[in-house]
Amino acid sequence: MTTAERLTDTLYGLGWATVKRLPEPAAVRLGRGIADLAWKQRGKGVRRLEANYARVVPGAGPERLAELSRAGMRSYLRYWMESFRLPAWSAERVRSGFSAKDLHHLTDGLASGRGVILALPHLANWDLAGAWVTTALETPFTTVAERLKPETLYDRFVAYREGLGMEVLPHSGGSAFGTLARRLRDGGLVCLVADRDLSSSGVEVDFFGDRARMPAGPALLAQQTGALLLPVTLWYDDSPVMKGQVHAPVEVPVSGTRAEKTSVMTQAVADAFASGIADHPEDWHMLQRLWLADLDPAKGPA
Questions:
Q1: SS3 for the chain, per residue?
Q2: Is residue 57 pLDDT above 60, yes or no?
């Protein structure tokens, strides 16, 4: 383990050990203070966040983009403060911490026994939404986590999410897809963060007027297992309660090759994500390059 990796692991460990003991108002103030400091320093992540917002909010000038990136960093740190504190939240606090529109898409899908895939972007706090599902709906689910460096940090995240009632599979290794398919065939629930492709097999989609690549997994799992595919978007407002929207099911096209069906379905997921992000851009925590033109300028429009 390098010195940088050791420092990262130590800082996350301190977060989980210390922040969860703070009174909630103190945690809120701490998160906002860290966010504002990071925003003022305008590091690489803040600049990338601002560049991504420029695509999401066309025509926004420098002043508007600065406002958005500041709000975005505050939202991002709210996510971290909540996540550090979630293991200490009571079941009642979790149940009262989230409210979703059109939840019937999810509950009806689970009641049907066909299995359900929830696909989410990096909006607001997906860990809180997951904890709400395991607590309020009393429904366990399976998810996938990116392998982080150092391994001890990855182990912390796995232990944290398992403590919230999730089954966590590693993204790498090749066995995750088969396990997810078995859970779905058994009528289970799978939740996947699906707005950034971490593989070489992503599907190109149109996203805010330019090409990006998103994971094929949700669409492929729906085709292979017959499970319901539901996009979900999340956002914060001025209350302590996070809000969410369960979008209408993404249907499997009746004709076409598997690749063609996957392309159509992934585009539908991307469109649902775009609607939620456009409504609440400051809650989209995308501090990495996403669009193909940003990843490789040669692939951008002429």
A1: CCHHHHHHHHHHHHHHHHHHHCCHHHHHHHHHHHHHHHHHHCCHHHHHHHHHHHHHCCCCCHHHHHHHHHHHHHHHHHHHHHHHHHHHCCHHHHHCCEEEECCHHHHHHHHHCCCEEEEECCECCHHHHHHHHHHHCCCCEEEEECCCCCHHHHHHHHHHHHHCCEEEEECCCCCHHHHHHHHHHCCCEEEEECCCCCCCCCEEEEECCEEEEECCHHHHHHHHHCCEEEEEEEECCCCCCEEEEECCCCCCCCCCCHHHHHHHHHHHHHHHHHHHHHHCHHHECCCCCCEHHHHCHHHCCC
A2: yes
